[in-house]
Design goal:
Length: about 300
């Protein structure tokens, strides 16, 4: 069974599928997607996930469970008789994943290493399931630069902490660099789904991806800090002049790995504060919960349009 999942494709079909770009994979009899507790040895991934069209990722298990229930109602998905939405990856104890018809809702944790491991396994999942042309979304939170809390930023391009539009990784002791690109048409389509009556603005802009929440984002409120408030503001102002509108912690690898795989992808984040005015996240929980539902609403509108449901 393992063998046929790797070698059964025609050349024509192979061209349409996800590009895993790893010759070693084809030679492996089976593939274990360890962190999401799935694998080709014991599961028919094509039967289970072959109908996926949208993969939605976000930081926390609770938010992605909530998104699963939200999108279930929005697209009118009815789980098979007698079943409820289950966390498919529960036994992996790392990420939570829910399948709602053609939508996968998955938590990715915090930071590049965490989402990176998940991206490798989700891209391979799409490959094993022979999914054609899926769209990947990150629906998350961020700090705005010149944008007040509660508004949405869609990433045009992701920059690393050195201001470069790349995802860099030490591989075999050398720097490997991949461009951190996102799909500009998809970004525009999503922005255009914002309605005049929505209580937020949606901006397309560059995203700075930091490897830390505190010093890496120029905050003054970490356990350590060796720069002044003036240094911080000068840095954030420079970012703003360069077109950066938000800071978060996953954009470079999300852009780079989806782009490398030929997957259309977008990052849709709600700002929790305007970093030009402060560092502490001190909005109320109710306010934050309502704000965090906003990127979900925008992505849900896109999914419904694509499924001809609106
Ligand atoms: C946004 O929020 C998290 C840090 O609080 C991080 O995962 C991110 O990108
Ligand atoms: N997430 C971040 O990474 N930074 C912020 O300022 C807010 C959320």
């Amino acid at each position: 069974k393992c063998e046929s999942q790797f070698h059964g494709d025609t050349e024509a079909r192979k061209k349409e599928l996800i590009h895993v770009k790893n010759p070693h994979l084809e030679r492996m009899p089976c593939d274990t997607l360890y962190h999401i507790h799935l694998g080709t040895e014991y599961q028919d991934l094509q039967a289970l996930f072959g109908d996926i069209k949208f993969v939605c990722m976000g930081g926390t298990p609770a938010r992605m469970k909530e998104f699963a229930h939200f999108i279930k109602n929005e697209i009118g998905y009815i789980p098979p008789y007698g079943t409820t939405l289950e966390d498919i990856s529960k036994l992996g104890h790392r990420y939570s994943m829910f399948k709602v018809g053609p939508v996968l809702s998955v938590s990715h944790g915090m930071g590049v290493p965490s989402i990176g491991i998940l991206l490798h396994e989700m891209i391979k999942l799409m490959y094993h399931a022979q999914v054609k042309d899926p769209v990947f979304f990150r629906i998350g939170t961020c700090g705005g630069i010149g944008i007040e809390g509660g508004n949405i930023v869609i990433t045009s391009e992701a920059l690393n902490g050195y201001g470069e539009p790349n995802f860099d990784l030490p591989v075999l002791g050398k720097k490997m660099s991949r461009p951190a690109k996102l799909d500009s048409n998809l970004a525009m389509d999503l922005k255009n789904l914002t309605l005049p009556e929505d209580p937020w603005d949606t901006t397309i802009g560059k995203t700075m991806c930091a490897d830390d929440f505190y010093e890496g984002q120029g905050r003054l409120d970490g356990a350590f800090c060796e720069y002044s408030e003036a240094d911080k503001i000068a840095y954030l102002t420079k970012l703003h002049k360069n077109g950066v509108r938000n800071i978060e912690m996953e954009a470079v690898i999300f852009g780079a790995l989806t782009h490398h795989a030929g997957i259309r992808a977008a990052i849709v984040c709600v700002t929790l504060l305007n970093r030009l005015n402060g560092d502490q996240i001190n909005s109320t929980k109710e306010e934050r919960d309502e704000w965090q539902a906003r990127p979900q609403k925008l992505v849900s509108r896109y999914i419904k349009n694509q499924l001809n449901l609106s």
